[in-house]
Amino acid sequence: MEAVQNEKGQISIHTENIFPIIKKFLYSDHEIFLRELVSNAVDATQKLRQLASFGEFGGELGDLKVTVSLDEEAKTITISDNGIGMTADEIKKYINQIAFSGASDFLEKYKDKTDDKGQIIGHFGLGFYSAFMVAEKVEIVTKSYRDNAEAARWICDGSTEFELTPAERTERGSDVILHVAPDSEEFLNKGRLQSILDKYARFLPIPVEFDGKVVNNTAPIWTKSPSDLTDEDYKAFYRELYPMGEEPLFWIHLNVDYPFNLTGILYFPRVKNELRFQREKIQLYSRQVFITDEVKDVVPDFLMMLHGVIDSPDIPLNVSRSFLQADSNVKKINGYITRKVADKLNDLFNSDRKGFEEKFDDIGLFIKYGILSDDKFWEKAKNFVLLKNTEGEYATLDEYREKVQANQTDKNNTLVALYTTDRKQQDAYIESARRRGYDVLLMDNVIDAHFINALEQKLDKVNFQRVDADTLDKLIDKGLNNESVLSEDDKTKLKDVFDQVLDNKMLNVSIEAQPVDELPVTITMPEFMRRMKDMSALSGEQSFYGNLPVSYNVVVNANHALIGKILAETDADTQKSLVKQVYDLALLSQNMLTGAELTAFVRRTVATL
């Protein structure tokens, strides 16, 4: 083995400004330096283990581990491993020639002896140079695993000059010693380093020791076979990921090695009726190294509310390993996750319908959002998405059509699905519908306005109408006209009276013949207008419809006894008071009567008792 010679020289790079570029632009967050250096140390250790398995290292492996040490007085951070180490020649190749990658060279040499899962992220390459984001000087003291290898020391002060000399080291492996720069002394803090290791190193496959204890779980359950795991294993891992989280509903174990490599576990949390995209809830790893919690391109958008872990070496990353790139593998993985989720939900529905219904209030948001955003998901989800009525009964789309089509099909042969967004507030309208034998769906989910639109486009001759969007005879127009007890002249007089008393251009008053047991006055907002406003409110953005002034239809029931009394009243003040009273009753039924108007209504009511 060639002896280490004292040597000084220039690092082989394309520009002398490489270090300022690394420090300012290569990584968005300087704490990444510890992830990169610890990952390199883990890689060096795994390579030694692989060489032993290939029969190319016959020595004792010993206690393989990576150690992170902090010396606050000396202002140094040291990352140590007992992996393969480097010779002086390898230092020149991997450290001084920045274009080379130790991992690439290693894998090329042993490509016939490794599989996808055995590949390593990278040894010394650009990742190593992240050290200069926080250090004013970096030392490497290393000794190769090779027989008769001499230890070597490499020192660089952040310029393009380096020094390579023999070193005193008896054990194989490497120490990377960072002499922390004055502007990065925040990292000379035990708590700060611990938090970085907790974030990036918690599932590395080689033990990482800091402050006298191992900080990582080297065998997280996503690396194991599902057949070897129990429900309690999955729940315990969830608690490890989210100590304060509520127990998940169920989970999906991802495990595929062709045409890409992907493992992981996705948990369905209890989200109820909250459309919150907590994008930090799914963590992306590459061979157990934490990469990012921004997984937008990898995970379908509608599943961003899931929790869990995804691990794949096939997701392309830039040199900082922090940003996903659009690539065919990412798209394939995205599609695979969609299929796996759809299949899991379909299996749950088919194997335990009752249990699926019990979970639906929690998982309905995922399913509905998936239907809105992914046509391929819709093809499977249309068989298990459920509609829930005000009685708490669930039905699939096909089941619901069969249930209501006889009674809720209009004159144009269109099925009209009535729904409510607020069971309590719209109770009077719901009860009117029930008296007609109509079924009313509960559509109080935050995305139901969009979901209804999607169903109308995807289903043949189906129309959704909110139960208070119009009179029932208009909502489900069967071509039948109720006979009015009022003449046309009476209707004209009555309309004039209401127009004068209400005196509001945003109210459209009409006199219509309705059953005598309906309310004397009904206030409705047209379905189209109401739905556009609901969708505008959900988006949080101003829109044309969201900014339009609110107009209402005021439907006077010509066949109600109170309306006949109003028409017959000869005293103008009494007639006005009666009109105001029945109108306020209609407002009250919609929870629209407040403030001084409510006070006046109460006083009028008390006065008549």
Automatic annotation (TrEMBL):
ATP binds at residues 36, 40, 81, 86, 101-102, 321. GO terms for molecular function: ATP binding; ATP hydrolysis activity; ATP-dependent protein folding chaperone; unfolded protein binding. Pfam families: HATPase_c_3, HSP90. Transmembrane segments: none annotated. Gene3D superfamilies: 3.30.230.80, 3.40.50.11260, Heat shock protein 90, C-terminal domain, Histidine kinase-like ATPase, C-terminal domain. Keywords: ATP-binding, Chaperone, Cytoplasm, Nucleotide-binding, Stress response. The keyword Membrane does not apply. Residues 29-170 form the Histidine kinase/HSP90-like ATPase domain. InterPro entries: HATPase_C_sf, HATPase_dom, Heat_shock_protein_90_CS, HSP90_C, Hsp90_fam, Hsp90_N, Ribosomal_Su5_D2-typ_SF. SMART domains: HATPase_c. Belongs to the heat shock protein 90 family. This is Chaperone protein HtpG. The gene is htpG.
